[in-house]
């Protein structure tokens, strides 16, 4: 039985985003607001997100927050039919990447990376219920640990 990936960001990052005043941050990919952003990405601009210029044609990029502080970046790629939400917290040394498939409307990847004694550790964030999730070490690290 495969476990379903969570559509939420981890509670620690969610708390830090709200403490930092980023009240329009995306905390779950299941929300009607996120789905509305996918239909009309220009609405991100009304919620204090910034459109970022890119040199490549891999998709459009929007950022909420400052470049060096806690922030979220949403990349929407019409070519690959994926939306990638990345949340960074440099102070805690934590980063979370959620990849959402625009065709199947499902989460393809939800990985949390953090520093543990100077080593980057990656976990998958699995679904438990509406508010909680479980961090499970990703397969690449399980193989490396053996």
Provide structural commentary.
With 146 residues, the protein is an alpha+beta fold. It has one domain (11-145). It contains 4 helices and 8 strands, in the order H-H-H-E-E-E-E-E-E-E-E-H. The chain has helices at residues 11-19, 32-39, 43-46, 139-145, and strands at 50-52, 60-65, 71-77, 82-89, 94-101, 106-116, 119-127, 133-137. The chain has an 8-stranded antiparallel sheet.
Radius of gyration: 15 Å
Helix content: 10-25%
Protein structure class: alpha+beta
- What is the N-to-C order of secondary-structure elements (H for helix, E for strand)? HHHEEEEEEEEH
Instruction: Kindly report the spatial arrangement of strands forming the biggest sheet.
Output: 1-2-3-4-5-6-7-8
Number of structural domains: 1
In what range is the share of β-strand residues?
35-45%
Shape: globular
Main sheet: strands, sense, barrel: 8 strands, antiparallel
Oligomer: single chain
Number of helices: 4
What's the average pLDDT? Answer: 85
Task: Give the N-terminus to C-terminus distance in angstroms.
Answer: 23 Å
Count the beta strands.
Answer: 8
């Amino acid at each position: 039985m495969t476990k379903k990936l969570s559509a939420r960001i981890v509670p620690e990052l969610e708390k830090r985003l709200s403490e930092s005043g980023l009240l329009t941050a995306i905390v779950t990919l299941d929300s009607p607001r996120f789905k509305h952003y996918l239909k009309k990405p220009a609405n991100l601009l009304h919620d204090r997100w910034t459109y970022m210029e890119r040199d490549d044609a891999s998709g459009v990029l929007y950022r909420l927050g400052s470049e060096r502080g806690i922030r979220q970046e949403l990349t929407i790629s019409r070519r690959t039919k994926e939306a990638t939400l990345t949340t960074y917290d440099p102070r805690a040394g934590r980063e979370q990447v959620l990849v959402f498939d625009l065709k199947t409307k499902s989460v393809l990847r939800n990985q949390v990376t953090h520093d543990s004694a100077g080593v980057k550790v990656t976990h998958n964030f699995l679904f438990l219920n509406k508010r909680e999730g479980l961090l499970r070490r990703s397969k690449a690290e399980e193989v490396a640990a053996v």
